[in-house]
Design brief:
Blueprint (H helix, E strand, L loop, with lengths): L11 H6 L15 E5 L2 E6 L15 E7 L5 E3 L4 E2 L8 E11 L2 E9 L6 E8 L25 E4 L5 E5 L5 E5 L6 E7 L4 H4 L1 E6 L2 E3 L1 E10 L2 E8 L6 E6 L7 E7 L12 E5 L2 E8 L11 E7 L29 E2 L2 E2 L1 E3 L2 E5 L3 E5 L6 E8 L5 E9 L5 E7 L5 E8 L9 E6 L6 E9 L8 E9 L7 H6 L4 E6 L4 E7 H5 L5 E5 L2 E5 L3
Antiparallel strand pairs: 1-2, 2-3, 3-4, 3-5, 4-23, 6-7, 7-8, 9-10, 10-11, 11-12, 13-14, 15-16, 16-17, 17-18, 19-20, 20-21, 22-33, 24-27, 25-26, 27-32, 28-31, 28-33, 29-30, 29-32, 34-35, 34-36, 36-37
This protein binds beta-L-arabinofuranose (FUB).
Beta-L-arabinofuranose binds next to strand 6 and strand 15.
């Protein structure tokens, strides 16, 4: 099936000058909500459709992406749509997912019934990437048109809070089950002392607070970060020594100017010792107010706990880890891509599709080690002529280290493993997969790839410096890295029951 292509490959050259913000190029991904689970950072996003209907938000499902290095993002598909909620006839606006006691609770904004009045729903899963189910069969909160943009937080004493709202900030105390609440709906007194004074006053909105709240706690201080007004939305924040306020207005974090979108939506999280600020822009080619995309910046809190002003960059964060090419890497893992799409089904999971001549994928900080790679294997499928994947270093026209040939495999999801020799891939590199083929049609689909190391260098160089014998990486069977460079016994301790890949070999864990 040919998918709609949001970024024409004729733009490939122009895109190569851009660095890696926005972080996803295959879909429009507004309203980011980051979550750390084990060794992985997940970002839950909305999805602005490629075709906007009635010049308004056109949003039907939510998407998930993950990373362990802050530069290469794996597309985890779309495990939730408004259709999951029987009570919803449409609309999939801002949402946030949080783990508790081995389950994942995804709070969403969805339209109630056939009208478009929003309500807050919750979906639950045993896994961060689903499948998610609606345990209630009805909205968790449905009181007015203000009910959008849930943000959720569990305090150190175990009490969970849900905040939401436009143009007022509402909150409830969630019960331990995370799917009910006690004490009724509270509404915050929207004073300028708490949320600042709006420069263009309007009757309903005296303060800067508009929507998109994001709550977190750091060093005993509670932070309420939010999309502010007037339009185009800047991001502002307030702090308090209690989770429910009163809040003190602290000022603007990000300007509303030049984002290419009249809305914005914040998410702040700490990961591997660094602070990250997620937001959205209209800066992807073809983007705008109804086609927004997740971007991220690294930042440090000021010594007094305040948040500095943060600018928008094309580059995004630096890598906090390297990518191990000797493990299975999903095709849909990318630092940047041009001209292609991803797609998923129950049999194949997510894979790369709509690949045409000159499309490419960039991966950053790929660590081939000093000994380098001797071959590469890829799982591909083609109903047509096939083509090649050129493996290049540094840029899409950089030095070629090998070429994978793909023929007709008998179907667009008839996956076949193909292997080819590689030479000259050593050290830490930006790796480009450059797709070539004749004609203008789709060439083939890509599911995953994996390099094989040269015999002389089967040990990861980082490990040589530490303990070459006993440090291992642990991956899930589907290739998500859970732990890296740990002693084998530490790496396996505390894992749930299941089969894991330890340095590429399957190991059964009996569970805790
Ligand atoms: O994405 C739809 C709406 O736009 C969200 O719910 C708001 O936060 C704004 O980003």
């Amino acid at each position: 099936m040919r998918s709609t292509r949001s970024i024409p490959s004729v733009l490939g050259l122009a895109l190569s000058c851009l660095a890696d913000n926005p972080i996803v190029q295959t879909y429009y991904t507004p309203d980011p909500a980051p979550m750390v689970w084990k060794d992985t950072l997940f970002v839950y996003t909305g999805h602005d459709e490629d075709v906007t209907v009635n010049n308004f938000f056109t949003m039907n499902d939510w998407r998930v992406y993950s990373t362990t290095d802050m530069v290469n993002w794996t597309d985890r598909g779309s495990p939730l749509s408004h259709k999951t909620f029987n009570w919803s006839g449409g609309k999939a606006w801002a949402a946030q997912c949080i783990p508790r006691d081995g389950k994942f609770y995804w709070y969403v904004t969805a339209g109630k019934g056939t009208g478009s009045q929003p309500a807050i729903g919750v979906a639950v899963s045993d896994n961060p990437t689903g499948p998610f189910k609606d345990p209630l069969g009805k909205p968790l909160v449905s009181q007015s048109w203000d009910d959008i943009d849930p943000t959720v937080f569990i305090d150190d004493d175990g009490q969970a809070y849900l905040f939401w709202g436009n143009p007022k900030l509402y909150w409830v105390k969630l019960n331990k089950d995370m799917t009910s609440y006690s004490g009724g709906v509270n509404v915050t007194n929207m004073t300028t002392a708490q949320f600042g004074t709006r420069t263009k006053d309007n009757a309903e909105r005296k303060t800067t607070y508009e929507e998109g709240p994001w709550i977190f706690k750091r060093k005993g201080l509670y932070y309420m970060v939010y999309a502010a007004g007037p339009l185009p939305e800047p991001i502002g924040y307030s702090t308090s020594n209690k989770p429910t306020g009163p809040w003190t207005y602290r000022g603007e974090i990000m300007s509303g100017a030049n984002t290419g979108s009249f809305t914005n939506h914040p998410g702040i999280i700490e990961y591997k010792g660094k602070g990250y600020f997620f937001y959205h822009t209209g800066k992807l080619p073809g983007g705008g107010g109804y086609k927004r995309s997740t971007a991220v910046e690294e930042f440090s809190f000021n010594a007094d706990g305040t948040i500095p002003r943060i600018g928008m960059s094309d580059k995004g964060p630096n890598p906090v880890d390297s990518l191990n090419p000797f493990q299975r890497v999903e095709g849909e893992t990318m630092a940047f891509s041009s001209g292609l799409k991803t797609q998923g089904n129950d049999q194949s999971g997510v894979y790369v599709t709509s690949i045409h001549n000159n499309d490419w994928i960039k991966l950053r900080a790929v660590d081939f080690g000093a000994g380098g790679a001797k071959s590469v294997e890829a799982s591909v499928a083609s109903a047509g002529q096939g083509g090649t994947i050129e493996l290049r270093l540094g840029s899409q026209t950089g030095r070629s280290v090998g070429t994978i040939s793909v023929g007709n495999t008998g179907g667009a999801t008839s996956w076949k493993s193909v292997t080819t020799t590689v030479s000259g891939a050593t050290g830490v590199q930006d790796l480009y997969l450059v797709f070539k083929g004749s004609g203008t049609g789709e060439l083939f689909n890509l599911d995953w790839w994996r390099f094989a190391p040269n015999q002389t260098e089967s040990v990861h160089p980082a490990r040589q410096a530490k303990d070459p014998e006993s440090l291992v990486d642990v991956y899930t069977a589907s290739g998500t890295r859970l732990r890296s460079n740990r002693r084998r016994e530490d790496a396996l301790r505390g894992l749930d029951r299941g089969v894991y890949l330890v340095d590429g070999k399957p190991v059964a864990v009996l569970g805790r």
